[in-house]
TrEMBL record:
Ranges for domain SMODS and SLOG-associating 2TM effector: 19-194
Superkingdom field: Bacteria
Alphabetized InterPro entries for the sequence: SLATT_5
Record keywords: Membrane, Transmembrane, Transmembrane helix
Residues annotated as transmembrane: 49-68, 74-93, 176-195
Pfam families, per the entry: SLATT_5 (PF18160)
Metal-binding recorded as keyword: no
Protein name (record): SMODS and SLOG-associating 2TM effector domain-containing protein
Keyword Transmembrane tagged: yes
Organism: Streptococcus mitis
Length: 204
């Protein structure tokens, strides 16, 4: 009788350890989801600003080409290339759905937090092993189902969530591409001003 009781207590202790491990895992995943939401939202905000600036600049160059008589060929080529680049980038960014994905990650971390709270509540209950284990499995199954229905966070988000004290740098193509846009815009402006000035005698 004493042996069976010790076995049950041992199983219950192991289950409690599993619950605590799952709680720790959910905390990390939830934080990674929050960071992913913030990261994607940041991309969306930057693209909104850059695309607005590019649209204004593209329109301004078009107006100049219509108003200024005998505008140089190079300026017209640069202006046309910039307009094409702006249209292509607008289409490309629209396919990435940064804002929508950020919102999904936001709602997802709320769902994960609810499951984490259920596990914390379960760890405090004085159920027997069988009942506690059954409830634990149900919560884990819900968690796995939620993961299958949502885009996964990146390794960058996971490492930031896991190692809060270590500063992580974002070398993803998404981050690099959005942050080189000011350079691209400046290069187009310089090309329009200086190349256009050098080749001003060539007109169409």
């Amino acid at each position: 009788m004493s042996f069976n009781k010790n076995v049950k207590n041992s199983n219950l202790d192991k289950l409690d350890e599993m619950i605590q491990d799952e709680i720790r895992k959910l905390k990390i995943v939830r934080r990674a989801r929050i960071l992913a939401s913030e990261r994607l939202g940041g991309y969306a905000s930057k693209w909104d600003m850059y695309l607005l600036l590019m649209a204004i600049l593209s329109s301004a160059l078009l107006v100049i080409s219509l108003i200024v008589p005998n505008e140089g060929l190079i300026k017209k080529v640069v202006s046309g290339c910039f307009s094409m680049y702006t249209v292509i980038i607008q289409y490309y960014v629209s396919t990435l759905n940064y804002r929508e994905r950020a919102l999904k990650f936001h709602y997802h971390h709320i769902e994960i937090n609810k499951l984490k709270e259920l596990l914390q509540w379960l760890s405090l209950q004085g159920y027997n092993f069988k009942k506690k284990n059954a409830k634990f499995k149900v919560i884990v199954e819900k968690y796995n189902l939620i993961l299958q229905q949502q885009e996964n966070h990146s390794e960058y988000d996971f490492h930031r969530a896991k190692c809060k004290e270590i500063r992580q740098l974002d070398f993803s193509m998404d981050n690099i591409f959005v942050n080189i846009q000011p350079i691209v815009i400046i290069l187009f402006i310089l090309s329009y001003l200086f190349l256009g000035g050098i080749c001003n005698e060539i007109t169409i």
